[in-house]
Amino acid sequence: MANYAIGLAEKRHLKVCVAIEDTDGNLVAFIRMQGAYAGCVDASIAKATSAARFGRNTIEFFEAVRTQSLPIGFVPGILPAAGGAVFKQGDAIVGSIGTSGDTNEAEQALVIDTAKHFR
């Protein structure tokens, strides 16, 4: 899945980091594209972790924090931001993806398109 996401990113002229995690939020694959900035490493992993542990795409988490003024503070490894999505088989969550390095819109589109390919 990481290679698929990187292929999409290349076609879209993005320079991102991609993290893939299992159901429990454990890192199973990571790729940093040449030219992706250093800060996207931790951010992409945190987005994948957030999606896995909360069981939903991070854009939903981001919107809830933003619109409800939730006092999330700093929870290690959790990032309520666009760019994270879950992988599903039927209704079961079987993993997640996180990406960072571009705009919210580009990152969210990349993870959603990758998650669709997973099914």
From TrEMBL:
Signal sequence, start to end: none
Gene3D superfamilies linked: Haem-degrading domain
InterPro entries: GlcG_carb_metab_protein (IPR052517), PduO/GlcC-like (IPR005624), PduO/GlcC-like_sf (IPR038084)
Species whose genome carries this gene: Acetobacter cibinongensis
One Pfam short name: HbpS-like
Superkingdom as given in the UniProt entry: Bacteria
PANTHER family per record: SLR1406 PROTEIN
UniProt-recorded name of the protein: Heme-binding protein
